[in-house]
Write a structure and sequence with these properties.
By secondary structure, the chain is an alpha/beta fold. 38% of the residues lie in helices and 22% in strands. About 4% of the residues have low confidence.
Length: 232
């Protein structure tokens, strides 16, 4: 995956470039609008991460130029979460934005989400309806239903993070997810990291809600010494 990174702050840019490359991305970093426009070419990048305030203009110009040439995913980096900035970026075709200062794991998770939505991620997009054992997950409505033995359905009330955790498992069916991987992907709705102990609690709560017998889980299974998985 190739990323165009436009950031004029060397400390932020180099740190972000290093972190992205550790995750396996190829990163081309530029510091000005001029350089960004010169380096961009259709088919060259899978994602563009654009700072807004730059010495010779702003990231909006770059986004508009890029979107005029190719429908490539764009994430804005902004020092302000003012609604006008966010709306302007999204109206120009950006897929997401993140405010500085940001946590690197949160940015990584947003990058993966944007790439999956664009069909560029390493994992397939989640289908509209997922059938897992006695569960039905309606992803468009963010609704989870439990099928009873008599064929009727009962709604399962999940918190935002529990639902996100369930989707993470659904989107990786057949793959063992280590606790480290889950911790990298998950953060709570207030932006705080989910630590190891909290992850244990969330998995238990999720099992209590979706498993017929939480003491003997058949949906989210423990792979001893490795992590957890949902079988295909």
């Amino acid at each position: 995956m190739n990323i165009l990174l436009l950031e004029d702050d060397d400390a932020i840019g180099m740190g972000l470039k290093y972190s992205l490359e550790k995750e396996g991305f190829e990163v081309e970093m530029v510091t000005t609008v001029k350089d960004a426009l010169e380096h961009f070419a259709p088919g060259k990048f899978d994602l563009c991460i654009l700072d807004i305030n730059l010495p010779d203009g702003n990231g909006y110009e770059v986004c508009k130029n890029i979107q005029g040439k190719e429908d490539v995913p764009v994430i804005f980096l902004t020092a302000s979460d003012a609604e006008v900035n966010v709306v302007m970026g999204l109206e120009m075709g950006a897929d997401d934005y993140i405010c500085k200062p940001f946590r690197i794991n949160e940015l990584m998770a947003r990058i993966r989400m944007v790439l999956r939505r664009a069909g560029k991620g390493n994992q397939p997009a989640v289908e509209d309806v997922l059938h897992i054992g006695h569960l039905c997950v309606y992803t468009k409505e963010a609704k989870v239903m439990l099928r009873r033995d008599d064929g009727t359905e009962e709604a399962v009330e999940l918190t935002a993070l529990e639902y996100r955790l369930l989707l993470t498992f659904c989107n990786n069916r057949g793959n063992v997810l280590s606790r480290t991987k889950l911790l990298e992907d998950m953060w709570d709705v207030d932006g705080d990291f989910v630590n190891d102990n909290t992850l244990t609690v969330y998995i238990k709560r999720l099992r209590d809600k979706i498993e017929k017998d939480p003491g003997n889980p058949q949906i989210i299974k423990t792979v001893r010494g490795l992590g957890y998985m949902i079988e295909k």
